[in-house]
Amino acid sequence: MPKTIAVLGSALFFAVAPTTVAGVVPWWISRWRLQAPFFDLQLIRWFGVVLILLGIPVLVETFTRFALQGGGTPAPVAPPQHLVITGPNRYVRNPIYLALVAIVLGQGLILGNAGLLVYGALLWIGFHIFVLAYEEPTLRRTFGAEYDTYCANVLRWLPRLPGSTSAGL
C-alpha cells in the first residue's frame, strides 16, 4: 500500500474508531458531568489526568507507525504489510488497546463516573477476546517466526521496562 494511502487510511480510521471508543461512547455514558471524586479524594482525578496524558501520545504515535513503518493501518481491513515492533510496540504488543482503555479509565476517574470504569473494563475484555480470537492468529499466519519471536519477547498487556526481557503472556 502506498504511504499516502496508509497515512490517509490511518487518519480516517483514527477519526472513526478511537474517537468513538474514547470520545463518543464515554460522552454518551457520562455526558462529561463532573461528579464527586471516588472516595472523596481529589488525587484520584489527577491519576485520571495522568492516564489520559499517557494514553493519547501512545495512541497517536502507534497509529502513525502503522502507516509509516508498517505500510498499512491498525484497521483489519487494511493491515500493515510489515510487523511494527518499534515505538510503543517495543514495550507491549497492544499499545493502541491499552491507550484506549487508559483514556476511558482516566475519564472515569476524572469525572468520578463508575459507569466509565465499567465500560473501560468491558472494553479491555472485548479487546482481549478480539486479540486472542482474531488478531494473534492472523499475525501469526502473516508474519510467522518473526511474530513468534516478538511474542516471546514482548508481553501482550503489561508493558515491559526498557532494557528488560520477558516471556509472552
Automatic annotation (TrEMBL):
Annotated GO biological process: methylation
Membrane topology according to the record: Multi-pass membrane protein
Statement: the UniProt record of this protein carries the keyword Amino-acid biosynthesis: no
A GO cellular component entry from the record: endomembrane system
Residue stretches spanning the membrane: 43-60, 91-110, 116-134
GO molecular function: methyltransferase activity
Main location: membrane
UniProtKB keywords: Membrane, Methyltransferase, Transferase, Transmembrane, Transmembrane helix
InterPro entries in the cross-refs: Phopholipid_MeTrfase
Superkingdom field: Bacteria
Pfam families: PEMT
Keyword Cell cycle: no
Subcellular location: Endomembrane system
Protein name (Swiss-Prot/TrEMBL): Isoprenylcysteine carboxylmethyltransferase family protein
